[in-house]
Description:
This protein is mainly beta and 133 residues long. It contains 2 helices and 11 strands; from the N terminus they run H-E-E-E-E-E-E-E-E-E-E-E-H. 16% of the residues are buried.
Amino acid sequence: MSPVVASEIGLGSNNPFTREQPVILPVEEAFLVNWTMKPGAFSIRFTMPPGYYLYRHAFETTAGGADRAFGIPDGEPVTDEFFGDVEVYYGEVIVDVPLEGSDKSIAIRYQGCADAGYCYPPRTASFTIDELR
Length: 133
């Protein structure tokens, strides 16, 4: 009896049941968040490994509980299967949030995906300013 080749019975690499599934990183590893204080601003750096990205339109910031405008560079234009034409960030992006004297906290909401087809739910990172000064 000759050996059976997996692809001959539908178990080759095109079979979704035998294909190796991509490893999806935990959100904390996919989107590393660091911060620095600058004169008059709180700077938040997001760092992503290859194959992961953040949506520009998903960023929202609050300071002291109120919506706050923020500075962010232009992203890379892409056509997204769910959102259409959008801008995304691969590798790194820095968001600058202006501070006012009475600000005690900063929160930033963000969302990203893996090129492998997995999108993370929106997430919020919060910082207490008094602890950072």
